Amino acid sequence: MNRLGKKEPKTLFDKIWDAHVVKQVTEDRQVIYIDRHFIHEVTSPQAFNGLRRRSIPIFRKDKITATADHNVPTKNQHLPIVEPNSRKQVDTLIDNCSEYNIPLYGLGHEKQGIVHVIGPEQGLTKPGMTIVCGDSHTSTHGAFGCIAFGIGTSQVEQVMATQCLLLEKPQKMKIEVDGKLSKGVTAKDLILYIISKLSTSGGTGYFIEYTGSAIETLSMEGRMTVCNMSIEMGARGGLIAPDETTFDYLKNREHAPKEEHWEMAVDFWNNLKSDDGCSFDKEYLFHAEEISPMVTYGTNPGMGMGVSDFFPLATNRKAIDYMGLNDQKQLIGKEVQHVFIGSCTNARIEDLRAVASFVEGKQKAENITALIVPGSKKVERQAKKEGLDIIFKNAGFELREPGCSACLGMNEDKIPSGEYCVSTSNRNFEGRQGPGARTILASPLTAAAAAIHGKIVDVREFL
């Protein structure tokens, strides 16, 4: 309240955060209740061991959902995992979930998939929630109007024990994108463009709300892509106010409210928006018409540019050396050897449909290995139901089984040293896709075009 007794206008972030405060510990630190906790095989084993050492039970098992995704192979998932470390981590997750009676979507389960794909598609992710996972790209769920963020292993243990976290409230940033995206320009291009303008540290210390007409016209899949890569700006997370697009996506999902509870939920969700006159700590405005298909040329997601642009004058020479681009002035025409379409950023059915619509009736270049990895078993089934698998096969693409795959090189899907991969994933760090691998981030459309032509092209010329 202000001195006149009127309520101060609040941002969407403030509304959700304040509704989840359990206790004010200090002026800057609060205990926040967590609505949904996702876990996977990589960051959970130490947390379970910590609970055992201290004989602490899990406080709310019904709020935890587990899946296997990072280390899983994407071929022959019906067979035992060959790689010893991957097998041990997945087996440990199975044992822990069995011991503590936690729902697990493991290999062979009809709901298995990448953790940030299965939450939304099952309706476990809903507006107004606080969501955490031991994975930085938990920010994906913010597309539904959630406060969702990644946590460390010690915090995974904290949430298991108390369903709460002791946190400092981040600052708030507003990024408005107005206008209409041009043909061939996607949500992935939009977020790569923003990161290229703000840098990989431009969002450090902030939680970002994305607004504007260009954001409002995005599908839920597109919104998830944008929120997913908020982390690549250094932000704590990103979120978008829920609207009819959100409600249409969630309706009739398995864990979405049903019947009269649905109407009550929508009434509540409609209030989840920033108030007129609310204040942000920092604001930016971008124009959608200025965005073109984007590619990265260096070794962090901030080193991005329009596909037809020339390298910036002030270019990081170490990154250019690693990428082997010293003799180039632009990426157009650059030959590549691999195309990877997948990850928690771009492995949803909309992404696969976009690729299929482009490659149908075409054939990949001989120098290309093209891998398509769906984000979940549900996406895989839907792709086959629509005949996308046949389109991919006829074009020379290989459709795999769900998993994180070549996004991060923690499994068998790695890019050979020195070779180039146009990837729809979220990070292009040195060695991210395998030791010595050279990653060029792009949208599914740009990746599909590269696979067909064997080199980087401006997809707009072929639409």
Distance between the termini: 54 Å
**CATH T-level topology of the largest domain:** Aconitase, domain 3
Which geometry do the CA atoms define?
A: globular
Uncertain spans: none
Assembly state of the chains shown: single chain
Describe the structure.
By secondary structure, this protein is an alpha/beta fold. It folds into three domains: about 10-170, 2-Layer Sandwich (Aconitase, domain 3), CATH 3.30.499.10; about 170-245 and about 270-290, Aconitase, Domain 2; about 295-460, 2-Layer Sandwich (Aconitase, domain 3), CATH 3.30.499.10. It is built from 15 helices and 19 strands. The chain has helices spanning about 10-20, 45-55, 85-100, 115-120, 155-160, 185-200, 215, 220-230, 245-250, 260-270, 315-325, 350-360, 375-385, 390-395, 445-455, and strands at about 20-25, 30-35, 35-40, 65, 105, 130-135, 145-150, 165-170, 170-180, 205-210, 235-240, 280-285, 295, 305, 340, 370, 400, 420-425, 440. It has a five-stranded parallel beta sheet. Strands 17-16-15-18-19 form a five-stranded parallel beta sheet, with helices on one face. Strands 11-10-9-12 form a four-stranded parallel beta sheet. The chain is globular and about 60 Å long.
